[in-house]
Please model this.
Amino acid sequence: MGTIRFQALQTALSHKPKKVKEPAKKRSEIFGENIFNAESIKAYTTKETFLILLDAIHNGKKIDRKTADQVALAMKSWAIQRGATHFTHWFQPLTGATAEKHDAFFDLDSSGVALETFDGGKLVQQEPDASSFPNGGIRNTFEARGYTAWDPGSPAFIIGTTLCIPTIFVSYTGESLDYKVPLLKSLMFIDQTATDVARYFDKNINKVISTIGIEQEYFLIDKALADSRPDIQLAGRMLIGHQPAKGQQLDDHYFGSIPERALSYMRDLEIECIRLGIPIKTRHNEVAPNQFELAPIHEEASLAVDHNSLLMDLMQKIAKKHNFTVLFHEKPFSGVNGSGKHNNWSLSTDTGVNLLSPGKTPKSNLQFLTFFINTIKAVHDNADLLRASISSAGNDHRLGANEAPPSIISVFIGKHLTEVLDELENVSDGRLTPEEKTELKLNVVGKIPEILLDNTDRNRTSPMAFTGNKFEFRAVGSSANCAKSMTVLNMIVANQLKKFKSEVDHLIDEKEMKKDDAIFNVLRELIKESKKIRFEGDGYSNEWVEIANSRGLKNINNTPEALKVQISKESIGMFESTQIMSPLEVHARYEIELENYIKKIQIESRILGDISQNHIIPTAITYQNKLIENVRGHKEIFGSLHKEFSGEQVKLIQQISKYIGSIINDVELMTEERKIANKLEDLEKKADAYCNKVIPYFSKIRYACDKLELLIDDEIWPLTKYREILFTR
Ligand code: ADP
Ligand code: MG
Model:
């Protein structure tokens, strides 16, 4: 056995579950103790400052310098009392990871006296050396300045001895350089448009927020085993490796008891999360071996997204303490289920109503139907943009690849709601007769509460499923920063609501229709227009590919193609008219994403070349020599080669030669294609080349390597195997 593989296995077997001490207090009592929340703000500052800050948090009011100084003072005292020595602005640049730059509170005053300082200026703005973050050409190097600016909507928190202040990240000229700014703008936009529409039903509504609950799937792999594989270490996934005799066929992992080592990791993680105000609620095994899922309770969207980013950081950090590596890659192991991030999404009013929750009265039903149908219409009209928002090199393996479901965006709503929409659709044109109205209301009212009881009617193959009081967008990749897709979802729904409002107002003002009639009439048309996006069947089936095709729904199965939609005239127009992103920002992001894609594939291709040439081929040759010696021995004994006794051995030698040859050949060809691609100046062409010319070699090379894994003596195989990675406990 390869030394590295042997040692990794030894080490992995010696890893025992770590003891985790449950805090003395209940979890509800430690919840948020490491964040500067309303309670701590109140305790550390004046009532006046507290109220101004609250207004900023909930209503986005600007904070003046004096208040910022007061808040900074309070934050400093609070943080230092908890042992913090440093502070940092914490932000989400377009690298996909989070970034921080630590500064000490410690300082010397003009007379050389040591003290702890922190003021409003430092709280509100920092200038990290931004030149190393992706900007898609927005910042020329001579103005390589970027600013982080405090986001009071997300509470500051302490990790270890550092006070982390959530911020946005913008360029000197004001363009956004992070995921958060567009998200915040989309939230403002949906607040406006959804509030306008919600006020048809209730004049007391003054604000609508988008709520998100993010289920995070991941793999937990022993660190020693993960580190023993160059591909897992560098690309987060296994580029080669034959599937084990047992995979997930038995479904024995799903909802099974959580292995002890993993459980102690999860408990440790949960305690840290709870202290940081991340409301983790559920944990369970997923379908694949060593795959798990964790879900917090839903929160206001931008907070939920911050919490998900923070959670991913924590998961990695705490995993190290437990000798685990967390894999967020969308498809670390071929033949085994991939990981996603299910974004449960809804809208909620300041009167405490979930706008996607079917109510009991006709009025709230109409309100529910309005938001429900408008969301479906938004997805219908913008399916390709939504598809673009979830595309990445990793997610390509989950969407539309060999073993993945097709990447067709569709919406599942269940049997009862389908009936409700069918009924609405068939109401006659023009004004509703009183009878029609009563009948409609009665039928609709009669049906909707059933939805809540209808738990069996859950389609797990739909990328966007309505699940009783929210939509679950399941196609988001597990490694993604979900701000991107949530920005798009909020934007397209908000934009649709705006159109809806103007159509309804038109009917009321110009056609003198009653409000309810006008709403029903517009909804009926929306149902008709968006019908083709609704699909209730098996989204993983081949049949669906055909149906979708005949309906004219797109099935875009790779990132370069998917991303193009973002820079279409319509998309840019929508980003611009909704003031979520300027054309410059959209183009910059497009470039960054293409570059990201190219780099990921380039790295994978290099690793694949290295592993196959440096690990697989030498091993294959060693083994082949052993066989040759063996056959030579045969010759010695039998005088000449004996077909019956030596035939199979000779065949083996030939097979090994064949695979060695094909690997060498394909790696060479792949490297050539890479060279050609690298010379291309145009990013789009380069990404296409990587996608269509380089990637096809991956499966060819893998096929030959995996065949060799089956032929070659396990004793000398250098790479840790699937079985060992997935089943060593
Ligand atoms: P399942 O595995 O059945 O999909 P989970 O309980 O794992 O369900 O996750 C459901 C997620 O949906 C949770 O994060 C939950 O907080 C979230 N959720 C529930 N109601 C809403 C809502 N109104 N808006 C957004 N998310 C919601
Ligand atoms: Mg779910």
